[in-house]
Amino acid sequence: MTSRPLSAEEGRRLLDVAREAIVARMAGRGPSAAASTPRLSEPGGAFVTLRKRRGGELRGCVGYVEPVFPLIETVARAAVAAAFEDRRFACVTEAEWPSLSVEISAISPTRPLRPDEVEVGTDGLVIRHEGRSGLLLPQVPIEHGWDRCTFLEQLCRKAGLPKNAWRSPDVELLAFRAQVLGEG
User: Fold this and answer.
1) Predicted structure pTM score
2) In sequence order, which residues have a C-beta less than 8 Å from that of residue 133 and are 6 or more positions away?
3) Is the pLDDT of residue 33 over 80?
């Protein structure tokens, strides 16, 4: 994500690309060549989250922080990974696929920040320390009702670090913003 938000049309296109990539993988095909706009052809980071439509239970979430691929390709790759490579879950099956919703978080480049600068609900966070890393999207603390301290503790937990590791002066803490695109 750059400083300019994606248009509604670009958001719909990315959601279509995510769904098409997962369906293609289920059918044993590679992703089709996705028609793109200049904006979607720019390198960009993104996460794709799959949830059960009933109850909203998480079913997979994978993404790319660094803008290595064009955004449209990042979304296709992340969608396939969320459906078939998230080690926390079994692969998505054809039978359950219609019952899942897709959410895309198009993310900005990361920037360093201090823990006291974290804006809950606005900042997504990455922590790196002692060879470990963890990431939480900006919507996660809102979904769980966390304050700043709990957000940082849960980030440490996700990275496999002690809950107060974020207080260490040698911790690398990075923030990013996300434009969340969901199915209506």
Assistant:
1) 0.89
2) 126, 127, 159
3) no
